Amino acid sequence: MTTTIQIFETRKSEIELCYSILVDLKLEEQVRGRTLTIDEAHTERFAPILKSNILLMLYNLVEACVTTGFVEIYDSIKNNSLSYKELIESIRSIWTNYEIGRQSLAATATTITYEKKVQNIISQVISDGAIILTKDALAISGNLDARAIRQLLDSHSINITDRSEKHHVLLVKNKRNALAHGIDSFGEGARDISINQLAEIKDEVINFVNSVINYMKSYHDRQDYRIRA
């Protein structure tokens, strides 16, 4: 999980840098006498935009780390040339659904196409062909909050003990979607979020992603996707 951890550390440091700049703007509290040379009018306009960007960066951290973590697990399965019968039931189910849905459930698919795809799956299972999964099997598209992430982990049989509510992770997802789809402008998206509230949001999201990576890393390193003899 080296790549995932590197992505986490890099994007975390970028977020912390932007947050430190926001604090230096001194909109809401004096911070050790430090300030940036930006006039008050521009500061009042820039701070909400920077807050929105930080929320966007937090969601970017979430999706990048979760996606890359699963891709590294899938790459490990591929690199070990594991066949269907060597994998646990949950991975078998993910692969089967992925293979069937990848082509045969398209709008233009015919019954013959569907049957051919099923035959190919059966053939690969019987011949002990290597199972290959890609990030497309995750069906992630801007919809990752704590509940969705836990569902992904559960579907892969990755045990996660922290089931506490993560309201800030949900908020970040919703804010990201509002910004990405043009519902909110960057000046509006986080205007009502204080610097202290943003710190709480930032810390919860970063800590949650870190814990998810740890769960995925243990699963990856122990090769828990394999059937144990």
Structural features, described:
With 229 residues, the chain is mainly α. The chain folds into 2 domains: 2-80 and 135-222, no CATH class; 83-129, no CATH class. Helix content is 64%, strand content 0%. The chain has 7 helices and no strands. The chain has helices at residues 2-24, 40-79, 89-103, 111-126, 146-155, 167-180, 195-222. The longest helix has 40 residues, at 40-79. Residues 28-32 have low confidence and may be disordered.
Quick structural gist:
This protein has 229 residues and is mainly alpha-helical.
SS field, number of helical segments: 7
What is the strand tally?
Answer: 0
Number of domains: 2
Please outline the major beta sheet.
none
Mean pLDDT equals 86
Structural class: mainly alpha
Estimated share of beta-strand residues: under 5%
Determine the fraction of residues in helical runs and give it as a percent range: 55-70%
Note the topology:
Elements: H1 2-24, H2 40-79, H3 89-103, H4 111-126, H5 146-155, H6 167-180, H7 195-222
Helix pairs in contact: 1-2, 1-7, 2-6, 2-7, 3-4, 6-7
Name the features.
about 230 residues; mainly alpha; 7 helices; about 65% helix; elongated
